[in-house]
Every structure is written in structure tokens, then in C-alpha cells.
Write a structure and sequence with these properties.
The protein has 361 residues and is α/β, with parallel strands linked by helices. The chain is 39% helix and 17% strand. Helix 7 links the parallel strand 6 and strand 7.
Length: 361
């Protein structure tokens, strides 16, 4: 179980349904893929999908700063290896590129541990492996008023019980309210609706618009203000009836501490790229102690292992971005997602991607 080698690959794969967020153009899925190989031949894989560049920077960080720390170590000591990487990169890191590099490696390490044990991660962590609720995310603001509603109706036709739409950035406040009103009218009272602001408002705007949205019985208002505006988050949560959610742009449990302390943001949405499995588990534990739910950002194939093993699981996010990348995809069924039962995290990229879709930029 000694780590013998660490390899990376960069991929650029065309999107099957490019997201129209209105402020980021994403025609391709850019992936940093890392393989951790043990002396006995076990190979664990991890990956990131940086949404705004930095592919080669992350890859360089893996090789220059992290790989020398891991070679020769026991792959089973995952938490200890996370701390070793954290302490060694503290001056340069704590957030950003270094933590993203650590996260890719952490995912690969856990995958190797699960594969060596012959168990899926949810079983390794004491989970049930039962199906989990997943919402249809992808009613992008760039689709416009009618396009968002059409996408939501498609999700409902597929059996989803909840969808997420977007506001802000390209819409006025009045347009946002009208779009949410129309969405509720189109879907009726029994489909849950999440609204994602993508950090597009000030606290004052979020309070003003949020109060107007309260009547539509939303499941949550997501990222209403910038990620580091904790005072703004709390002010919005105090002022509106709709629950507030956030966390996809926060790094490790240290960045979540204001939310743990206040308890005012009931749904936390940590991202695997900003802490890996190890920190996701820590965040979930702190959140449980604070009475908060976990609804991870993206990566349902991986995040489902954690949600299966924690008492404060909420929703998985279903984008369908990666379904065409896997040797054996795991599609949702009737608005539910069953964690992979294969050893480790259980997901393998199609081998032809590494020859046909190599990143060259």
C-alpha cells in the first residue's frame, strides 16, 4: 500500500449540453485527472473540473508541491496525508490552487483505499448505499424566461421532484421575480424550487428581492452575496423567510466557521474541489453539530458516497455534465440517485478520452 507513483492528465471534452449561466461560457469540460498508484498496483483516481482556468497551474502544484510529500507513504493514512499536505503548503495556500491540488489527490487516495478493500466508499464509511434525492440543476439564466421553464419541465417529466433555476447577472430584479413567479405557476405547488444567485447581489439587493420571492415557497436562495460576505449572508438570512444556502466557493471547514457559529444558513454546499473527501467529512460533522444540512455542489457520483454515510444529508445536485465521460455512468432514476456500488468511488473515465480529448491549450 506504499505510494509508488502519481500521474496527471489534462482533458478537454466537449459538453453535451453547454451550461448557459450568462457570465461564464463553458463549451467544454476541462478536467485535471490524477492517478495514485501503490507498489502493489492499486490505482486510485481523482479529478477536478476547474470552471475558470488554472489547469496547468493546478497540475504543476500537484507535481512540485504535493507529489514529493506523498511518494513512499502508506496510501491508507489519508487523513494524515491531508494534514501533511496542508501543513507543508500553509504559507502559500490555505485556499485556492494548493487546496484544489490537495483535493484531487485526496479523492484519488480514498479511491485507492476503497479499491484495495474491495468496498465502495459509502460502505467503508458506514453508509447505507440507499438512493438519495437529487434535484435537476441546469435551468440556466442564459436560456431566458421560457428556456428555464422548459428545462425545468423536462426535469419534472424525468421524475425529478426538485429543480434549480438562476437569477441575477443578466436580469433586472423585476425580471427575476417574474421568472420565479412563472416557474412556480408552471410547476405547481408540489415541485421544490431552488434559486441560485451565483453571488450576484449585494446584501441590500438580496434582502429586497428575497422578500419578494418569499411568497413562492422556495427551498432555498443560494449564494445571494459574495462568498466572503458573511455579515451579508447573516443579514439576508435574518431578513427573509426563504432559507439561505451557500458554500460552493468556500475552502475547507475553516472557511465555514461563521456558518457553524451562527446556524443561520441551514443548507451548506461544500465542493469536493475545495477540500476533497477528507474535508467534506469534517465539514459534514461540524454542520451536524450545528444543526445544518449538507447539499454538496456538483459531482453527485462522488458526493453520494458521503451523503450516504452522514446523518445530515440533504440534496445531491444533478447536472448530467459527466454522464458521457464514464465507462459505467450512474444516471438518476425518478429523482433519486443511488451511490455507485463498485469499490472506491466506483467511477472510471472512458480510456479513449485520454487520447482523443487531451488538453492542448
Amino acid at each position: 500500500m506504499i505510494i509508488k507513483d502519481i500521474r496527471t492528465s489534462l482533458l478537454r471534452v466537449p459538453c453535451t449540453d453547454p451550461p448557459r449561466t450568462g457570465f461564464i461560457v463553458t463549451e467544454n469540460i476541462d478536467l485535471v485527472v490524477v492517478e495514485v498508484e501503490t507498489a502493489s498496483g492499486i490505482i486510485g483516481t481523482g479529478h477536478l473540473q476547474p470552471l475558470a482556468g488554472g489547469m496547468r497551474t493546478i497540475e504543476m502544484c500537484i507535481h512540485e508541491m504535493m507529489k514529493p510529500l506523498l511518494l513512499g507513504e502508506d496510501v491508507r493514512e489519508v487523513e494524515a496525508l491531508w494534514r501533511k499536505m496542508w501543513q507543508a503548503s500553509f504559507i502559500q495556500g490555505r485556499m485556492g490552487i494548493t487546496v484544489m491540488a490537495m483535493s484531487a489527490l485526496d479523492i484519488a487516495l480514498w479511491d485507492a483505499v476503497g479499491r484495495a478493500a474491495g468496498k465502495p466508499l459509502w460502505q467503508l464509511w458506514g453508509g447505507s448505499g440507499e438512493a438519495l434525492p437529487i434535484y435537476g440543476s441546469g435551468c440556466y439564466r442564459g436560456l431566458g424566461h421560457d428556456g428555464m421553464i422548459e428545462k425545468a419541465q423536462n426535469f419534472v417529466a424525468e421524475g425529478y421532484k426538485a429543480i434549480k433555476m438562476q437569477t441575477a447577472h443578466i436580469f433586472s430584479h423585476d425580471e427575476d421575480v417574474a421568472n420565479v413567479r412563472a416557474m412556480r405557476a408552471a410547476l405547481g405547488p408540489n415541485i421544490e424550487i431552488m434559486v441560485d444567485v451565483n453571488q450576484g447581489w449585494s446584501a441590500d439587493e438580496a434582502i429586497a428581492v428575497g422578500k419578494r420571492l418569499d411568497e413562492f415557497q422556495l427551498t432555498w436562495l443560494e449564494e445571494p452575496v459574495m462568498a466572503d460576505d458573511f455579515d451579508g449572508y447573516h443579514a439576508v438570512a435574518d431578513a427573509i423567510e426563504t432559507p439561505v444556502s451557500g458554500g460552493e466557493n468556500h475552502f475547507t471547514h475553516h472557511d465555514f466557521k461563521p456558518f457553524f457559529a451562527s446556524g443561520k444558513v441551514p443548507f451548506l454546499q461544500p465542493d469536493l474541489m475545495r477540500g476533497g473527501f477528507t474535508e467534506l467529512k469534517v465539514i459534514a460533522d461540524h454542520a451536524h453539530q450545528a444543526g445544518l444540512k449538507i447539499a454538496p455542489h456538483l459531482f453527485p457520483e462522488l458526493s453520494s458516497h458521503l451523503l450516504s454515510a452522514i446523518p445530515n444529508a440533504s440534496w445531491l445536485e444533478g447536472m448530467g455534465w459527466h454522464d458521457h465521460l464514464w465507462v459505467e455512468p450512474v444516471p438518476p432514476m425518478s429523482g433519486m440517485f443511488t451511490p455507485p456500488s463498485r469499490p472506491g468511488h466506483g467511477m472510471d473515465f472512458k480510456p479513449e478520452l485520454f487520447t482523443d480529448c487531451a488538453y492542448t491549450s
